[in-house]
Write a structure and sequence with these properties.
234 residues; alpha/beta; five-stranded parallel β-sheet; two-stranded antiparallel sheet; 8 helices; 34% helix
Length: 234
């Protein structure tokens, strides 16, 4: 059984869902501390003005992801939704998906984690990605630190393979996995090129909603079209 683990990011990019689509189980690492330079609360979409960053404002203080609160004193929800609408209302599949997303943006979320998980869960449904989803915080257990923590979470779910993104290579210790009989594999991701609404050349590494609103139910086929086999090393 293949397991992947990642922080619950805001409107994640295509590579995030490529990994999800190859997994039997997925765990939101929501008890981890927010790392410096994290995209936990921000991502890019493609607007008529080009690559545009959407950032959810946060309150200061908490370090653990599941405790991070949104700063709702700023009218960020209306601004984000207005930007998304202006960017994608002319897309072919906007009429089919807009209501589901709008419902999320109409709700006042207290915690960033809850917002992100609601969006990711919706996107998985629209992409027809069938994966069992857990949250680290739902297990009353200390899994340890670093890659030992990841390996122990996989073992908890009786996984046999851990799928890591390329960014995990710098902190994964293969011995932590091999000692408990788990195979460590990496996603070797090649970004698909697809028709976009704006721009003369392709813009990569945007939120997956850029693909979804433009290509609808064909989006998962596009994600899979450039998929490479999982590899033991990069």
């Amino acid at each position: 059984m293949k397991v992947s683990i990642h922080q619950p990011n805001y409107l994640p990019w295509i590579g995030y869902f490529n990994k999800l689509d190859q997994s039997d189980c997925f765990v939101f690492l929501d008890k981890a501390d927010v790392s410096k330079g994290s995209v936990l609360n921000r991502n890019y979409i493609l607007s008529p003005n080009g690559k545009t960053l959407l950032t959810v404002p946060l309150k200061k203080g908490e370090k653990a992801i599941h405790q991070v609160q949104i700063n709702n004193s700023r009218n960020w929800r209306a601004k984000h939704w207005a930007t998304i609408e202006a960017s994608y209302k002319k897309s072919p599949y906007w009429p089919f998906y807009k209501d589901r997303f709008q419902q999320i943006y109409e709700k006042e979320w207290e915690y960033l984690c809850e917002l992100n998980i609601a969006l990711i869960t919706l996107i998985c449904e629209l992409l027809t990605i069938n994966v069992k989803i857990y949250r680290e915080s739902e297990f009353d257990e200390d899994f340890g630190k670093g890659s030992e923590r990841i390996a122990n979470i996989v073992a908890k779910l009786k996984g046999t393979t851990y799928i890591s993104g390329s960014g995990g290579k710098k902190y994964n210790n293969r011995e932590d996995f091999e000692e408990i009989g788990i195979e460590l594999m990496y996603q070797h991701f090649t970004h698909p090129v697809y028709e976009q609404l704006w721009g003369d050349s392709f813009t990569e590494k945007l939120s997956v909603i850029d693909l979804l609103f433009t290509h609808g139910p064909h989006s998962i086929e596009i994600i899979r079209s450039t998929r490479n086999p999982l590899v033991k090393d990069l």
